[in-house]
Design brief:
There is one protein chain. By secondary structure, the protein is of the alpha+beta class. The chain has four domains: about 140 residues, Beta-Lactamase, CATH 3.30.450; about 100 residues, Beta-Lactamase (2-Layer Sandwich), CATH 3.30.450.20; about 70 residues, Orthogonal Bundle (Helix Hairpins); about 140 residues, Histidine kinase-like ATPase, C-terminal domain (Heat Shock Protein 90, 2-Layer Sandwich), CATH 3.30.565. The chain is built from 17 helices and 16 strands. It has a five-stranded antiparallel beta sheet. It has a five-stranded mixed beta sheet with strand order 11-13-14-16-15. A hairpin with a 7-residue loop joins strand 3 and strand 4. Helix 1 packs antiparallel against helix 5. The longest helix has about 55 residues. The two termini are about 60 Å apart.
Length: about 575
């Protein structure tokens, strides 16, 4: 249908151009011929009038003189002219009487008329020579007939030429149209021809190159899809892909077995209806704590949820959610192992215990602060006991905080903000929190913060936690009466927050020293969980930073290296 429409349209377009040219040419020619015919008729009438006037002067009959020439000659006396009113030639007769002669094409019925005044004073009348209208229009009608015949011949020739051109052009274009339809339908196996002239051949060659590239891209896509399916099939865990509306777009066989559904029945369903997580306090995790939404806005995350598979009791399943990519998010599902269940129970017990201990510790700290205000320097022994109790309470509080923080890190719940950081405020809070420890060991805290402070973006609370841990370690392992220094340096795109002490330093590289539950040189009086540096490293890694340790001139410097504001 499209092929015939193109050919018909091309034929009609060509015929329209030819018809417009014929009409324009014929119209101009018709008016030119009509004008020339009228001028010729007037000239003949005037010549006939002059000859008839000469014949009358010689005494001959003017009508007989012009007989057989197609010119009608008549004499009109003055009385006839005066009594005529309706004849269209009256103005010419009167003009001739007044000026001696006149000529004009009167109308479509009279024709061409030339009038001459007869001699005499006053003139007895006029002599009229008339060529009938039929004789005037005859050449025009003959020309119109010939033009019509010629136009019909030209139109016929144009139609044949247009049909031939449409066939020659429409055939190659129809082939290319069919080839384009095959491309649209995904048939990439058949080559595309290059028919016709230069332009259609170039179009065909372009489509053929596009077909080859599409075929190659399709083959590559199929190869990668097969590889991806092989990789996914080899994964023991279940793989689920969801779109922005959290509707399932893909479900692997292990995931289908884990959830007790058929893969074909899962596509298009809301993930919460497919996973069926057990509600907590009447609220499904999908509505309140969905790991998919957490990963979408805060990065990759994982959670342990009780899933109610069809026909089976609820069982804990580890759900790992990735950040969105290409409009999809991938979930990794696997049953929680016994080790992970034990670890989760341990972390829950540690979190509960730590939470329960924070309230009495806070009350104890407030009581010790009030007691220290009542103990005077006159009783140094009591004051030392109160300070020792305060230091022990602060150590215990930090231990509990570190245990809680380690549980958050292990469960993937540690998140950091990225806001402008006021380093002066962070330094002041860190020094205020560690000053009792340093005072207990008669240590001096010195701050070397450049002015203005370096511009830094991060989480002020987490960075303050890093500095508190570093200062606590420096105070704990530094000698009594020594100096602990805290400062910052800026070097291009990196900022270093450092703590320096006069202790023995690390006996192993920084990565190993910052491992979980790793402690420095053991001393009887030192107590701790070995979590401080590990927590510092975890927080710094989430800021895009790292932990470095250097030693020079008998002093150990631990530096938290961070990217400057705006650095990538």
């Amino acid at each position: 249908m499209a092929r015939w429409s193109f050919r018909l349209g091309l034929t009609v377009w060509a015929l329209g151009l030819v018809a417009a040219a014929i009409v324009a040419t014929a119209g101009v020619s018709y008016f030119m011929v009509a004008r020339l015919s009228h001028e010729e008729a007037l000239a003949r009438a005037e010549r006939a009038a002059e000859r008839a006037l000469g014949a009358r002067a010689r005494g001959l009959d003017p009508e007989l003189f012009e007989a057989g020439t197609g010119v009608e000659v008549a004499v009109r006396d003055r009385a006839e002219i005066a009594g005529a009113f309706d004849d269209p030639r009256v103005p010419l007769w009167r003009e001739a009487l007044e000026g001696g002669g006149a000529a004009s094409i009167v109308d479509a019925e009279v024709g061409a008329v030339a009038v001459r005044a007869l001699t005499g004073e006053p003139s007895p009348g006029v002599l009229e020579a008339r060529i009938p209208a039929a004789a005037v229009e005859a050449p025009v009608r003959r020309f119109a007939a010939r033009v019509l015949a010629a136009s019909l011949l030209v139109a016929l020739a144009a139609a044949l030429t247009a049909a031939f051109a449409a066939r020659r052009l429409g055939g190659p274009l129809a082939q290319l149209a069919r080839a384009a339809e095959r491309l649209e339908a995904g048939e990439l196996g058949r080559p595309i021809p290059s028919p016709g002239g230069t332009e259609t051949a170039a179009l065909g060659a372009t489509l053929e190159r596009a077909r080859v590239r599409l075929a190659e891209a399709g083959a590559e896509l199929e190869r990668r899809r097969s590889e991806l399916e092989s990789v996914v099939a080899g994964i023991a865990e279940g793989v689920v892909a969801v779109d922005r509306d959290r509707r399932v777009r893909y479900l692997s066989v292990p995931a289908a077995a884990l959830l007790g559904v058929e893969p074909s029945q899962a596509v298009g369903r809301f993930c919460g209806d497919l996973l069926r997580p057990q509600a907590v306090d009447g609220v499904r995790p999908c509505d309140d704590a969905c790991p998919i939404l957490h990963a979408r806005f805060r990065g990759a995350s994982h959670a342990v949820e009780l899933l109610e598979a069809a026909g089976e009791p609820a069982r804990p399943v580890v759900i790992g959610a990735s950040a969105p990519s290409g409009g999809l998010q991938v979930l990794i599902l696997r049953e929680e192992s016994q080790v992970e269940a034990a670890q989760r129970a341990r972390d829950a017990a540690v979190a509960d215990l730590s939470h329960e201990l924070q309230t009495p510790l806070a009350a104890q700290g407030a009581s010790l602060e009030l007691l220290r205000e009542r103990v005077t320097e006159s009783d140094p022994h009591a004051l030392d006991l109160v300070l020792a109790l305060e230091a022990g309470t602060a150590r215990l509080r930090r231990l509990i905080d570190n245990l809680l923080e380690s549980v958050r890190i292990e469960s993937g719940q540690l998140s950091v903000r990225h806001v402008p950081v006021d380093l002066e405020e962070v330094f002041e809070e860190a020094v205020a929190m560690t000053r009792p420890l340093a005072g207990r060991r008669r240590q001096r805290l010195e701050v070397e913060l450049p002015h203005p402070p370096p511009a830094l973006t991060g989480d002020p609370q987490r960075l303050g936690q890093v500095l508190v841990n570093l200062l606590s370690n420096a105070s704990k392992y530094g000698p009594e009466g020594s100096t602990v220094r805290l400062g910052a340096t800026a070097d291009g795109e990196r900022i270093g927050l450092w703590v320096e002490d006069e202790g023995p330093g690390f006996q192993e590289p920084a990565p190993r020293a910052a491992a979980r539950f790793r402690r420095g040189p053991s001393e009887p009086r030192q107590e701790g969980s070995g979590l401080g540096l590990w927590i510092c490293r975890s927080i710094l890694e989430r800021h895009g930073g790292s932990l470095a340790v250097t030693r020079a001139d008998g002093r150990t410097r631990v530096t938290a290296e961070l990217p400057a504001r705006g650095a990538t």
